[in-house]
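Suppose you are handed a protein chain with no further information: no name, no annotation, nothing but its sequence. What can you learn? This example shows the usual starting point.
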Amino acid sequence: MSQRKSHDLECPNCGSSRTFKRGKPEKRTYGLAQRYQCKECDKSFTPKSIKPSSRSAKSADLDCPNCGSSRTFKRGSPKKRKRGFVQPCVCKGCGKYFLEDGKKGQTPAKPADVDCPNCGSSKTFKDGSPQKRKYGLAQRCRCKECGKCFLEGGRKRRVVAKSADVDCPNCRSSRTFKHGSPRKRKHGGTVQVCLCKECGKYFLEGGKTGQTPAKPADVDCPYCGSPKTVKRGSPQKHEHGLVQRCECKECGKSFTPKSMNVDRRKPRITTAKPAELECPHCGSSKTFKDGKSKRRKHGNTVQPCVCKDCGKHFLEGGKKRLRIFLKGKLIHTCYDPPGLQHMENITCPNCNQKKAVLKTQFYDNKVQKQIIFVICLGCGQEFKGEGRPWSNHTSRMLGKTILPQPWKFEEDIWDLRELYPNTPEYDFRQLFIYFNNSGSSWFKDLLKHYILWRIKSGIKSTTVKTEIYKLKHFGRFIDQQGVTCMQQVNRSLLATYYNQERDHIKKNTLTLEIKSLDTFFRWGNETQNFITLPRLITAFDYPKLFKSEPDPLEESVIEAIRDNLHILPEPLQLMFMLGFWLGTRPSELCHLRKDCLKLDPDGTTWWVEFEREKSLDEHRLFITTDLVRLIQQQQTYINELFGEDYSYLFCHYQQLGKTSYPSYPFMKPIKRPPIVTSGNNPMVKTINCLIQKCNIQDSNGKLVKFTGAILRPSRATHLINNGFSLDFVRIWLKHRDERTTRRYYTRYEPGQLLDVATVMANVDQKFYPYESNPESLRQNPELHELDGLKMLNGEPLYGYCSFREFCPRFGRCYTCGFHVASADKLSHYKSQLEQLKIKEEIAFNHGSSEIYESYKQIVNALESIIDALEGANERDNKATNSPELG
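A reasonable first move is to predict its three-dimensional structure. Written in structure tokens, the prediction is:
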């Protein structure tokens, strides 16, 4: 093993001569460079300015300006600077680098001859050249002891805080000092920012009128009741007048007297009023009212109060908190009312006493039971008790049948099934109507007579629920106002009701409420149940409504939902497709009958029949063969689940949470129609999950908001965009007036209205004005010539049409019973038949079932037309050649 030889080259890091070569010389831009390693400090180095021969570090021959050591060495070659050459050096003592002035040779650090302002040491040196500042030349200096830099000369940093010679407006202390320079204000005058040494708060001296002391507020503090209160700032303008912000000197809290209407000419001052009751927390009698009284949801009024001793807030007139103690330990807390709810026939398993009271209760969806926790007042033991039976709402959601209750006028709960006989149970959104919490007893009796009269007049059950809700709110209001009969109701009382009590509701809701009250007043005056002042409600009382445009789903959104619809359960897929195709309302879709599918007597067209919600009549729309197949599968699925006695096409589903999307393995079918409301409707819930998971956005880049009611205007707009007329869409949705269709359901430009006759034959997804139709089609109301028009598939039409109303065939005129063939067009029918057979074969080869069925129907109809026309020609020829006719 060869031994490495030592060289005379000293280490530039520690100065040791025990250095050795590391490897072979490497080629660099300036020549060969040899890597060395020091044995003492174990550091590697490469002399940059030498060739492979070794060269020792040269001494710098000057003291270090940082530590004063003489063990300094040159580091590299001299470098050219602006004012000459400088030599980089390194100190072995402190390890720091410094520069040796090459122009003047060794330049030691000059003493600064000033003490350090940070540590007071006199060992200070100048650092660099003097620098020109705003207020003169400044010399940068460095302290050898603490190592910090500071400036000598220029603007002096040490500025003695001047006394403000004013008392602090917050704590009245005289230890105040000026903070910064005076400042000029916008509205004139100069102010001085001051600082108080005692409280540490800032304040202003001077300004427009000089020093302005805090003015007393002349009102007691609502928190502690102290009269030592001062005003903070200027009065501010609010909705009910000017208000003044105040601060208490005792507790330091800020407050605004709510009942103080500050006026510079005539101020109103309201002091905190005592509550005259004991604090429920500490029992103190030093309690005060905190603000105005508040009206609760169910009619009672409470007064917020505050205790001066404990500082806690409580309510006067609300529920009282009851605490039950056992052996000094709190075992139960409740409110009065309802107070203690004793549980009968429940025995404590610990002490066998029947002193159990209800602590809490909730409904567990997993076990589908009502869970209650009770506590024994004898031993303080908490245990589970047996739950009460399901409520009527929960039972209906689970498909349970609620037994009807006998109807009595005196009762506060009426069963709607007794008032609306022969109505299916699930057609009621609410089985019972409640008259409790309607105000005074005399108004409740009037309300019962009015509702009974409205039911006999033929209004729907949903309207009954809405009118009761509106009139119960009015009954509670007049009871609070001290009204004892309807003769005391005047226009000023109604103005107070609408301006103060109902100012938070929307204009549409307010319009319906005014209409309900107007109907109630007219009923009382006409039936002599009560007499009111004339013209209580006029036409000017109704708010002005602005009709908003419909907001249907965009075409891109519908396509995105259709593309991802296959991942949802099949019954929910069918609900969406049927709801969009038929354009039904949510209740009509949920209550669709299982036998809704009908077939024409000729066996060519399938129809869906359903009952409309608003007019309670039947509606009939044609349907495609693909949807027919899905409906038949759904019928089989429902029969296997619930049997033949269940009469609805769809059922309700539970356990459709977001975590189980999209397979929903725990989806549980319930024997009842789907719930109509969007929050509980299974189809709406799953479609909203689909939109969120697939990130389906509209044209504004926002997630789509889907509801069951949005399918109806979306279908109407889809038909309009595909070339169907407004009258056709009106009949499809079965509206009485086309203005309803245009205003609420379609986004339609006024210059693109079509006639129903155009749709009957020109269903080619283009817009044609009515004037472009043939003259015979516009003038003859009984028979219309179809020559020159086209069918749905683009083929020309020949013959006549005797049907003027809504056309259900969508341009398939040859398959319609109202089509009249033209005898002189026999050759055209034959050529058209040959072309259609070719297209029928192409559709069959490509597997397009819907298009193939369409062509097949038209081909069969054309063959029948040709056979009939040829048979008629043969009969005419025979009749012409008979010997009887000569």
